[in-house]
Specification:
Nucleotidyltransferase, domain 5, single chain, 7 strands, alpha/beta, 3 helices, 139 residues, 17% strand, two-stranded parallel ribbon
Length: 139
């Protein structure tokens, strides 16, 4: 075997063009497939526990998030609207955006059962029957 003259450093090249293209495609794929979660509320809600709870709720534009706190306040999007305000809010929401595919009801475990039933009754009056009660997984 015969060697070429020189130390061989001239022959060694790394082609970065294809590497940059592949990295750009990987980053683009990760950005497009990533779902970003947003904090549901600015206040603490002690959720009741259940064995059959799911770990994560799906992200969808037509999901309505309602929170009932321990002092029986009703919040939608971090705004305290109360039971009376909920009826007008739901009516406006349905007229503007259509019926939501699902409603996530996050109620504190110390909230009155009657308040939760009133919230569900308001939703059912507007023909919204897909109501999910959010709980935390029993450890």
């Amino acid at each position: 075997m015969r060697r070429r003259p020189g130390n061989g450093a001239e022959d060694f090249k790394i082609e970065l063009t294809s590497l940059v293209d592949i990295m750009f495609l990987l980053i683009l794929f990760l950005v497009l497939t990533t779902t970003f979660t947003v904090s549901q509320s600015k206040f603490k809600v002690k959720l009741p526990s259940a064995v059959t709870s799911t770990s994560q709720v799906t992200q969808n534009k037509k999901i309505l998030n309602i929170v009932v706190t321990a002092d029986n306040s009703v919040y939608v999007d971090d705004t305290n609207i109360g039971i009376k305000g909920l009826m007008s809010f739901v009516t406006t929401y349905v007229d503007q955006y259509g019926t939501p595919t699902s409603v996530y009801l996050k109620a504190d475990r110390d909230a009155k059962y009657g308040t939760i039933i009133k919230v569900m009754d308001v939703l059912r009056n507007r023909k919204i029957f897909n109501i999910d009660l959010i709980v935390r997984k029993l450890q």
